[in-house]
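job 3f2a | input accepted
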Amino acid sequence: MKILVVGSGGREHAICSAFARSGRTEKLFCANGNAGIAEIAECVNIKPENINGLADFAQANSIDLTFVGGEVPLALGITDEFEKRGLKIVGVSFSAARLEASKAFAKDFMRRHNVPTAKFHTANSKAEAIEILESDEFGGENSPVVVKADGLAAGKGVVVAANRAETLAAIDGLDEIAGADAASTIVLEECLFGREISLILFSDGENFALMPPTRDHKRIGEGDTGPNTGGMGTITNTGLLSEAQTQDVIEQIIKPTLRGCRDEGFPFRGILFLGLMMTESGPKLLEYNVRFGDPETQSILVRLDTDFVEICEAILDGRLDQIDIRWKAGNSACVILAAEGYPYHPRKGDVIHGLDKANALENVQIFHAGTTRNDAGEFVTSGGRVLGITAVGETLKIALDQAYQAVSQISWKGVRYRRDIGK
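job 3f2a | predicted structure (423 res):
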């Protein structure tokens, strides 16, 4: 099969690696890829948001299967365009993508289908958000509030404000960190407390299959301090969710969600990401994503034993319930190495040292997120999150030790990472 992956980050590198392991893959393309992806796939100079250009490429090159990595092309309707042309593609429809593309739509959807979530209010301006806040809907001066930009903001459109003053500052500055379009509508939520878990699943519209639960570390600083990022590291660990908790999530969140999508006319076919808070009163849904998470994908797909192409075909054919999806036993960890200045103004162009030594370590895989090559052929930084250092192990401690051993081999000017992933 000829396969096209759409995207250019660490998530897409992990997806390309999963396809590259398949005996069904004859030729692998990635649009537009990065320097690490270029070692296992042919990178195509078409940006992920150019959906017509991608569809033209798929037609011209007889692509048998396209897999969409990120949320932007999905929100632009890439799946609808490909299907209109008779092209096979794994990714949700434009209508289903609204579950991520609009926080307000998602929260209203949760309310319509009785999916447990935080109390919320939606404002169409900063002034309205302040008016809602001052009505004491969210408690007093010292009550924490979650402030969300409605639109897509690359994982940076959420601020957890500790008190009224921080909430007001977050409302005022949300357009700067998330972008004016994304922040034109603002969602205010009560702050939930508990353990935060990411649970991702394959869905063919009727049936679903769970992936190993993961925990992301969103904030830039150790001890969960500083601003939110796209994610600074993840772990997979069977202890993150008990069997009873998993069953609660299935009954209270997954089944109502998939049923709601069908009832509203957009069956969910693709990858569904659930951001969960495990509270004292049970699981509550923080957010939907309609694609693989980043960097969750890196720590999940290194444990996949089943042929990834077979899973994709089962999604498209509506027969996920007929295949056995197997995962390697043990645990995994991914530590993100980011550029100086991330998440606001990342520095670029620094030469990366030590990749060969790190790659030589047992059970370690390095996924490139923001890299390119300079004129001398050296890998250099070209984005905020640069590398995802991923390891598997029989225990979480072994996986983390292996990942951090690899991290210790890599350096560039201003490299930053969290030393407490998985703690």
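job 3f2a | The domain at 195-322 is CATH 3.30.470.20 (D-amino Acid Aminotransferase; Chain A, domain 1).
job 3f2a | closed
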